[in-house]
Backbone:
DNA sequence: CTGAAAGCGCTTACAG
DNA sequence: CTGAAAGCGCTTACAG
C-alpha cells in the first residue's frame, strides 16, 4: 500500500476524508484535519501529481516555452531568468507551478509545443520568441488553451500578448538623434528572426518619415544577434556610402563588439559615432563611454505576464480584468555618453574620422 | 466522449488496441496500426499525460532545477541555456521530456524541490547551485530518486555529480602566474555562496602551498557574483598591503567591472596587474586587453549530465556504464593578454602604479 | 462530519 | 491479433 491509501489506513479513516482534509475542504472535523496534516507532514506525503491532475482535470501548472537556438538564446542572458522570477512571484501565490520548457536548437518549435498541448501537460502556456507568422498561436487558439505571448505576431487575433515597446524605443532614439543633428542614422536588424526585428525595422522607417528623413536601405545593417555580430557589422556600418553618424542597436550586447571594433579603428563612440543600444544590461554598465540605452524591470514584466495568464484561468481571476491583455511594455531612456554630442550643421556629414585611411 | 475512447469509437475498435497501436506494441495488425496512426494524426490526438503517467507509473520527464537568486542567476547568463541544449539533445532521443524548474528568489530550494519529489512529478532530477551542505541531496537519496548534481557537495555520498574542474583551473592559473614571477596573487571569493566558492578557495590555498607561497587571508577578496562585484572590489584589491600583482576571478563577468575600474584609475590590466578570469564567455571576448580564461563546451557538459541521468534510469541505460558518475569537467586555458607579462624579480612588489596618489 | 463508490484517461496482463 | 476488465492514485458528488 502506498500514497493516500497508506496514510488513510495508518490513520484508520477513509481516503476520501484524508483527501478532503488535505485539500482544505470545510466539512472536515478540526481534530481529524490536524491528525491528517500531522501524519502527512511526518510521512512526507504529498498527493501524486499524475493521479491528482487526472482526477481534477487540471495540472495546476503553467508552461513557459523558451527557445535555445543561438538567435534567441543569446538574447536570453539574464533576460528570462529575471522574467521567470516575476512570473513565479505571482504563480506561487495561486498554487500554480511554473514549468520552463526549453525547445532544443534542432527541434521545430511548433511540434515541440504541440506535444505539451495535446498531452495536456499544462493548463496554460507562455510563449516567447514570437515569429511574424507563428503557427503556435493558431494552434493554441484552435485548442482553446489559455496563453500569453511574450511578443507579438501577425498570426491569430484577439489573443493576449505583452511585448517590449520597440516602437517607443525606436521613436525616442530617432527623435533624440535627430535633435542632436543626425541625419544618417543606421540600425542593426538581423535578416531572419523574430517578429521583434520586423517591428524594429518598421518603427525605424516610420520614425524617419515623421522627421522627413529618407529611408535608405543601406543604413539597415544585417547583423547576428550577438556580441560578435556587433563586432562584425562595424566595418560594414562604416563603409556605408555617405557614412552614418549614428547607430541604434536592436540588441544591447552588440555594443560590446561594436565598441571594441571602433576602438581598434581609433573611432570614439560618443564623439565620432553616436550609439544607442536597446536594453539596459549589467554587462553594459561598464562600457566607457557609458551607453545610452533603455531600462525596464524584468521582474515586473514577469508579474504582468503571469497576471495576464491568470486573467484567462477560471477560478484564478483576481479582478474583473479583461481576459485579453495586449500591451507594449514601457522602457525608460537611460542617457549615457555614447550619444552625448551634437552634430554641427556644417559637419553633419563624414564626421567619422578613422585613425588610418 | 474524448481522448482515446473517442478515437477508439470512431475507429470501431477497443481502446486497448488503440493504445497498443500507438505505443508500438508488436502484436498489432499492421493495417490496424496504420488506421490508428492516421486517425490520431488527423485528430491531433496524443495521450493525456496525467492518465498515461498514472497508468505507467512514470512521467518520462526529467526535472532540472535552477535557482533564480541573484548570486547564482547572474552566473546563469548563457550558461544554463547552453547546458539545456546539450541535455535535450540526449533526452529527446530517449523520448524523455526536460522540465526546467526555476526556484524563485524568495523560496527555499529544499522545499521547492521537495514538492516535485513528493508529488512524483518527474522521474529524475538534475540539481544545480549546490551548497557545501545541501539537504536536497539527502532528500533525493532518501527517496531513492535518480539524480545528478551539477556541482559537488559535502552532503550525501556515492551520488552522481559533474562539476567544473575548479581545482584544475585554479592550479593552472596559479602555476602560470607564479611562473611569470607573481608572488602576491589575489582571488575573488564570495563569502557566502555555493560550494563552488569553497572549492575555489581551497584549491587556491593548496596551489599556493605547492609553490611554497604563504596564504594571506587579505588576498581573498569578498566579492559579489556580478559585473558590479568586480567593479566594487577593485579598490579593496588595490588597497591590500603589499599590493597584489595578480588576481584570479571566480566569476568571469567580474572582469568587466574590474577592467572598467582599473581604467578609471589608470591601471592597465596585462601590464600593471595580471588578470585571469574563469570561464570563456562571449561578453568577455571584446575586452581589451583580451582576458586569459578557460573554455569549455556547455553543450558537451549538458550531454554528459544527461547521460549520467540515463545511467540511473532502468530501461534507458545505454552502455554497461557505472550508474554513479563523478567527474570534474575539464576546462582548457585560453591565453589572453591580461596576464601576458613577466614580473622582473626586483620589482615583484608594488608594480601597480595608480595614476594619482 | 465521514465512508463507499464512481470516475478521471490511460495501459496492460489475461483470455480467447 | 483483439476485446474486456482491472488498476494506476487521486477527488468528489452522494448518502447517511
Residues:
Amino acid at each position: 500500500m502506498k500514497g493516500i491509501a497508506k496514510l488513510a489506513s495508518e490513520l484508520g479513516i477513509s481516503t476520501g476524508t484524508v483527501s478532503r482534509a488535505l485539500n482544505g475542504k470545510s466539512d472536515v472535523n478540526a481534530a481529524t484535519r490536524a491528525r491528517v496534516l500531522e501524519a502527512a507532514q511526518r510521512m512526507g506525503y504529498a498527493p501524486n501529481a499524475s493521479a491528482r491532475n487526472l482526477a481534477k482535470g487540471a495540472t495546476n501548472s503553467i508552461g513557459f516555452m523558451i527557445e535555445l537556438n543561438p538567435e534567441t538564446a543569446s538574447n536570453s542572458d539574464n533576460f528570462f531568468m529575471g522574467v521567470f522570477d516575476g512570473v513565479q512571484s505571482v504563480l506561487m501565490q495561486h498554487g500554480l507551478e511554473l514549468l520552463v520548457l526549453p525547445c532544443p536548437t534542432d527541434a521545430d518549435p511548433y511540434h515541440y509545443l504541440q506535444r505539451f498541448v495535446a498531452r495536456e501537460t499544462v493548463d496554460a502556456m507562455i510563449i516567447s520568441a514570437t515569429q511574424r507568422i507563428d503557427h503556435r498561436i493558431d494552434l493554441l487558439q484552435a485548442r482553446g488553451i489559455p496563453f500569453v505571448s511574450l511578443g507579438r505576431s501577425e498570426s491569430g487575433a484577439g489573443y493576449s500578448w505583452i511585448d517590449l515597446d520597440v516602437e517607443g524605443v525606436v521613436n525616442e532614439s530617432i527623435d533624440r538623434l535627430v535633435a542632436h543633428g543626425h541625419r544618417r542614422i543606421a540600425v542593426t536588424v538581423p535578416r531572419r528572426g523574430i517578429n521583434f526585428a520586423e517591428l524594429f525595422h518598421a518603427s525605424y522607417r516610420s520614425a524617419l518619415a515623421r522627421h522627413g528623413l529618407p529611408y535608405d536601405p543601406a543604413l539597415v545593417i544585417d547583423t547576428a544577434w550577438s556580441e560578435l555580430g556587433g563586432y562584425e557589422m562595424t566595418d560594414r556600418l562604416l563603409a556605408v556610402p555617405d557614412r552614418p553618424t549614428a547607430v541604434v542597436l536592436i540588441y544591447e550586447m552588440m555594443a560590446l563588439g561594436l565598441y571594441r571594433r571602433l576602438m581598434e579603428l581609433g573611432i570614439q563612440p560618443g564623439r565620432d559615432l553616436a550609439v544607442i543600444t536597446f536594453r539596459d544590461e549589467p554587462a553594459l554598465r561598464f562600457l566607457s563611454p557609458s551607453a545610452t540605452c533603455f531600462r525596464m524591470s524584468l521582474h515586473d514584466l514577469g508579474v504582468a505576464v503571469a497576471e495576464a495568464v491568470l486573467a484567462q484561468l477560471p477560478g484564478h481571476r483576481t479582478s474583473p480584468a479583461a481576459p485579453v491583455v495586449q500591451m507594449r511594455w514601457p522602457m525608460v531612456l537611460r542617457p549615457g555618453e555614447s550619444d552625448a554630442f551634437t552634430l554641427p550643421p556644417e559637419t553633419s556629414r563624414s564626421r567619422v574620422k578613422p585613425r588610418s585611411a
User: Anything to note?
Assistant: The longest helix of chain A spans residues 195-210. Residues 348-352 of chain A have pLDDT under 50 and may be disordered. Chain A has three domains: 3-47, 61-157+298-330, 166-295+334-347.
